[in-house]
Amino acid sequence: MAEFLQFCFSGLTVGSVYALVALGFTVIYNASNVVNFAQGEFVMLGGMVTVALLAASVPLPVAGVAAVFVAALVGLALHRLAIEPARGSSPVELIIITIGASIFIRGVAQVVFDKQFHKLPAFSGDAPIHMLGATILPQSLWVLGGAGAIVIGLHLFSEHTLVGKAAAATAANRLAARLAGIDTTAIVSLSFALAGAVGAVAGILITPITLTSYNAGTLLALKGFAAGMLGGMGKPLGAVLGGLLLGLAEAFGAGYVSSAYKDGIAFIVILVVLLSLPQGLLGKHSAERV
Amino acid sequence: MTKRFRLLPLLAAGAALTVATAAGERAVAQDIKIGSVLSATGPASFLGAPEEKTLRLYVDTINAEGGILGKKLVLVVYDDGGDPSKARTFAGRLVDEDRVTAMVGGTTSGTSLAMAPIFEDARVPFISLAGAVEIIEPVRKYVFKTPHTDRMACEKIFGDLKARGLVKIGMISGTDAFGKSMREQCLKVADKYGVTILADESYSAQDSDMTPQLTNIKNTPGIQAVVNPGFGQGPAIVTRDYRQIGVAVPLYESHGVASKSYIQLAGPAADGVRLPAAALLVAEQLPKDDAQRPVVVGYKQTYEKATGEPVSTFGGHAYDGLFILVDAMKRAGGADPTKVRDEIEKTTHFTGTGGMFNMSPTDHLGLDLSAFRMLEIRNGDWYLAQGDR
Amino acid sequence: MRALLSARWVTLGVLCLVIAALPLVFPSSYYYRVAALVWISAIAAVGLNILMGYAGQVSLGHAGFLGIGAYAVAIGPARFGLNSWLCILLGALLSAALAWLVGRTILRLRGHYLAIATLGFGFLIALVLANEARWTGGPDGTPVARVSVAGFRLAGPVTWYWLSGALLALGTALALNLEDSSVGRALRALHDSEIAAALAGIDVARCKLWAFIIAAVYASVAGSMLALFDGFVTPDVASFLRSIDLVAMVVVGGIGSSAGSILGAGLLVTLPQFLTVFAEYEQIALGLIIMLVMIFLRRGIVPTAQQLFAPRRR
Fold it and tell me: Taking burial as the number of CB atoms within 10 A of a residue's CB, which of B33, B116, B276, C129 is the most buried?
C-alpha cells in the first residue's frame, strides 16, 4: 500500500510537471492551431532567468516576475517576427519555424547563461511530507496547485472576458472572427505572450524539482506535447489530465514493470488511448487542417 | 518584385557566411595544429564546456610562453553536439582538411568510439576524454585516453564496500551511455570483490523523480548499500529522492558527479555520499609531499581564476591530454604524427590531474586504481574518506 | 504530360550531373565524406517526401526506420555471420513489415495526432536500441563490419560517395516515377482532399499505408548505408532529433518536391560544417537560418524558386 501510494505521488509529481508544460501548448494551439515546439524553451527561460537573477541577489519573487515578463516578450517576438510573417504556411511548415526558434533560443541561452545544471530553492522547504508510509515533496503540491490555478485562470479568461471570448472566436474561425471586427492578429500575438508567461510560470514552479539547464526545453516540449495530445489538443483540462496520466504511467511502469522501459510504457499508453479516442481524452470532433 | 526583395536578406547572409569561411583562421605553415572535437552543446555539454575552456586556456598560456619548440600551437575545435555521426565527420575534417598533428577530444564514449577508426586509418594520435574501457581495449595503435575507466570506478567502490563489510547492494543506473556502460562493468567485476547485486534499477538522464525505483530498492530485503552509476543531473535527483523516502544504507555515487555542481544541486542530501574521484577535487587537502599536489593545485587555481566557475575533473582530463601530448611533441622534437604517437606511448611518470600516467604498448591509459581517491561529502564539501590516502 | 515527363528527366539529369561533377572541385577527401552524408540523408528525405508530399501525412518518428536499417547491418553480420548486402535487404523488409503492422493502426489518426503517434513509435525503437545492450551494444553503440565486393573492401569516403550517389539517383528515379504512376496520382489526390479522393473511388487507407511503407524502406536503406559508411552506429541514429532533422529537410526543400528534399538534405547536412566559423554562436545561426528560409521561402526552396523563375506559367 505504501509502495502503491509512493508510485502515485511520484506520478503526480512528474505528471503535474508535464501538465504545466502542456498548458502552454494549449494556449497557442487554441488561438492559432499552431503547435509551438519552442514551448519547452519558454519553460527553460522561466527557470534560467530566475536562476540568473537570483544569483545576482535579486529576491525570488522579483526574479520570478521578471522571468515571466521576459518569456512573455519572447513569445510575443516569436509571433511578430517569425509566425506572423509566415502566415498562410501549412502546419508542418509552422512547426519547423518553431523548431528553428527553439534552436535559436537555446543558442542564445547557452551564450547568455552557461551549460551547467541549476536549481531553485523549494518554496516551502525540502522536508518531505509523510503520509501512510509514502512521501511527497512540498514543491510537488506547488506544481500541482499551479497547474490547477492556471486551468481555472484560463477558463475564467476565455469565458468571462471580452478578450478571452475574442480568442475563442479566433480559434474557432479566424476569418469569421475578423469579419466580426476582431483584430485576430493581436489576439494571436496575445496568445503567444500568454503561452510564454504560462511556460515561464511552469519553469519557475518545476525547477526546484526537475532542475534546469539551457538544454532542458527539448525533452519538456516532447513530454508536454505528448500530454497535450493525450488529453485532446486545445483543452486546458485535457492537458492536465493528459499530463497526470502520462506521469502516472511512467511511475507505475517504473515501479511495477521495468524502469528501463518506463518511457516506452508511457508512449504505449498514448498509442492505446489515441487509437480508441482519436481526438484524445477530452477532444471533440472537428476538422483539422493538415 | 516583393518576392525578389525578400530573398535579399538570405543572399546577404549566404555571402557573409562565405566571406567568414574564407577569412577563417589560416595557420602559418610553421605552426603546430592540434584538433579537438568536443560535445560543447547537447546533453553532454556540461562535460564538453569545461574541456573546451581548459584547452583554450592552456593553449593560450603555452603560446604566451613561447609555444612548443619555438612554434605556435593552433587549436581547432569543433562541436559535435553529442552526435557520433557528426563527430565522425568533424574527425575526418581534422584529418583531411586541417591536417592536425594530433587530436585531444571526444567528450563521450559514443563519439570517441565512432571517431577512433578515422584517426587509426589516418595515423594521427587521438587522446580521448571519455570513460569507456572499450576505447583502449583492445589497444588501437593511435588511440589513447586520460580519464579513469568506469571499470576502475566500480573496483574502487567495491573495494571500499568490501572493506566496510557491505557486500549486498542495490544499483540504480542512468540509461545514458555513461550509466549503462558503468553498470555493465560493475556487473562484471562484482564477483571479484564478493559483491552481490540484489536490486538493479535504472532511470533516464532527464527524469525528475526516481522514488519508484528507489522504493523498490528500499523494499528489497538485505540491501546494505546502494551504488548509482550516472552523470549529469540524474544523480542529484537520485540523492534527493534517496533522502526523501528515507533509505538508510550508505549511498555511493560514481566519478561522473565529480564536480561541485552535484553538491549544489543535491544540497544537504549529499552529505555522507561517497564517490571515487581524482585528487583534483581535494587539491588543497592533499599532504604536502603528495606528488600530485603541485599539479592539481596549479590547475585548480588557474582554471577557477580564468573562468570563475568551480573546477571539475572533466576539464582535468583535457588538461592531462593536452600536456601528455605537449610532452610527447617535445620529446619527439617535432610534430610528425607517427613520432608523436610513439612518444605518447612512452609516457611514464607523467603527473596529471587524474593521477600518475605510465603508458605502454599494451596500456594506452596508464592509470591504476591508486589514481582514484575515495571521497566523502560532508557539510557540502569533498573530504578524503577515512582509510583512504 | 510531356512537360511533366521532361521535368522529371531534368531533375534526374541535374542530379546525376551534380554527382558526377562535384568531385572536380573537391580539394580533399573530407568533401567526399560530407557529400556522401548528404546523399545518404537525401535518400531518407526523398522517401519521407513520398509520405509527406504525396500522401500529406507527417511522421515525427521516421528515424526509427533509419535505426532499423542501421542496426540490421550492424547485428546481422556480427551475430549471425550474414552477408552485409543481404542485411540491407533484411532491414528493409523488416522496416516494411513493421510499417505495415504499425501503419494499419496509426494511419487512422489525423494531423497532429498522427504526428504524436509516429513520434511515440520512433521513440520506442530508439528505446529498444539503447536498452537491449546484449544485441545493440547499448547507448555506446556498436561497430559495423566493413563490406566487400569480390574481395575488394569498400572503405573510404570516395568509394562511399559514388555508392551513395548512385543509390540516391536510383531512389530519386523511382520516386519520380511513382509520382506519375496511378498510385502517385491517387496519393496526390489524397493530399489535396481525402474526402474527394475517397469519393473518386480511391482506397484512401491503402494508399496512405503504401506511402508509409515506401518511406520506411527508403529510410531503412539510408540507415544501412549510414552505418556501413560510418563503420559505427549508436542509438542516436533513431533519436527524435534525427526524425525532426528529416522532416526539416523535406520541409525546407519544399514539401512535395524530390529535388527539394535533396536540396534540403544538402543544406541541413552541410550547414553545421559552415557554421563552425561562428563558434559558440553556431546554434543561434542555425536556428536563425532555418527560420529565415521558412519565412522568406514560404513553400520551401524548390517550389519558391519555380515560382520565381516561371511566374506566368499559371
Answer: C129
